[in-house]
Amino acid sequence: MKPEYPFNPMPETEKFNLLNLNRAALEVFFQSNGEKSFRARQLMQWVHQRGVTDFDQMTDMSKTLRQFLNQHCCIELPRVITAQKSSDGTRKWLLSVDDSDNAVECVLIPEKSRMTLCVSSQVGCTLNCSFCSTAKQGFNRNLTTAEIIAQLHLVHHSLLAEGSSGVSNVVMMGMGEPLLNFDAVIAAVDMMCDDYAYALSKRRVTISTAGVVPAMRQLEQVTDVALAVSLHAPNDRLRNQLVPINRKYPISELLQACHSYIDGYKSRKITFEYVMLDGINDSLEHARQLVSLIGDIPCKLNLIPFNPYPHAIYQCSEQDAIDRFRDYTSGKGIITLTRRARGDDIDAACGQLVGAFHDRSRRSEKYQLSLKDIEGVSLAH
Ligand code: SAH
After folding, report:
1. Where in the chain are the domains?
2. CATH number of 79-368
3. CA distances (Å), 299 to each of 9, 216, 229, 231, 272, in order?
4. Residue 99: CA atoms inside 13 Å, Cβ hemisphere, count?
5. Which of 71, 125, 151, 289 is the most buried (most CB within 10 A)?
């Protein structure tokens, strides 16, 4: 019997991008349209595992179903504006996400044993960290789930087409604050880890936050992917300057949320990120304060040499200062890595991602808005 499609959730004029739906949502979608829920798994395998975006090529779907999908839905990926490759192998894609000049960047960092993709979650950022160039661009909008997962789709399938292994790790450390785009990020992360999509282990997917404490509390309810926290300062006075969201959620609350996130997971560790700013946060005294702050949390510490950009008010710490800091913290038992700057010849290093977009808003207004949002309901998942 031919299936019937009594329910049309799509607006008449616009096709609905099925990349927005994770498996649970796709199952509801198919069931609401008179199909069995296993269609969701089939569709995900076509799209995410085989890289097929044309419904007509999905040969295990009935003709009627394919017609229905063609009529109402699409699998739409962002357009690649530029693809660049650094002398060290790092690659960066600038992706157009809509018709109004909004663009975001994602960066692939190839290493011997892994291919790490750094994914953006917002067009711009509201948090205004004083050392970050994305912040200088202001904020335009959240990315949709489709726009987030599409970054992985595009890069993974480009790699496979080149005969290389695909993406093995994802870090949500591109443009934006992932926890201020909570639902879209969680649905995308869900797909990253789904056996019928990219099947990445939860340890290979990292969400990085500047410290949106209520959302961190929410996060532990819905997922246990790896968590990185951009700490950058060992006391509130300094952190208030570098990471202004600290004025709302001070270090003590942030660290409580970190404890709580890994509580009950034996081998879990928080990754603390700490950008090395010359003469600002890089002294031995800062290292001492840091050890006393995080010494009792199962963690790794990533020291990130500051990546400069035009008009930046900071400089990177001297190599000696970075080494001294690292020797001190590792001597106190904290696993400490100094991150190598990757891809700086194509502005692909941390904090250099700017994409391109119109800041249609005054940032101060948006900042107020985001602080209001994160206080409660809008983050409920
Ligand atoms: N908003 C999230 C994720 C994006 S930033 C967060 O704050 O964690 C990814 C990492 O790069 C963060 O640790 C951020 O603080 C760091 N970063 C930003 N600008 C940088 C710069 N110019 N040099 C080095 N690291 C930078």
Report:
1. 16-74, 79-368
2. 3.20.20.70
3. 45, 16, 10, 12, 7
4. 0
5. 151
How far apart are the C-alpha atoms of 26 and 134, rounded to whole Å? 33
* Domain 16-74, classified CATH 1.10.150.530, yes or no: yes
Q: Among this protein's residues, is 350 annotated catalytic?
A: yes
Identified catalytic residue from 27, 35, 105, 177: 105
Q: What is the pTM of this model?
A: 0.90
Query: What is the DSSP annotation of 206-258?
Result: EEEES--HHHHHHHHHH---EEEEE---SSHHHHHHHSGGGGTS-HHHHHHHH
**CA-based diameter of the chain, in Å?**
75
Q: Is 12 tagged catalytic?
A: no
pLDDT tens for each residue of 201-253: 999 999 999 999 999 999 999 999 999 999 999 999 999 999 999 999 999 99
Q: How many residues does the chain have?
A: 381
Asked if residue 208 has its Cβ within 6 Å of ligand 1, the reply is yes
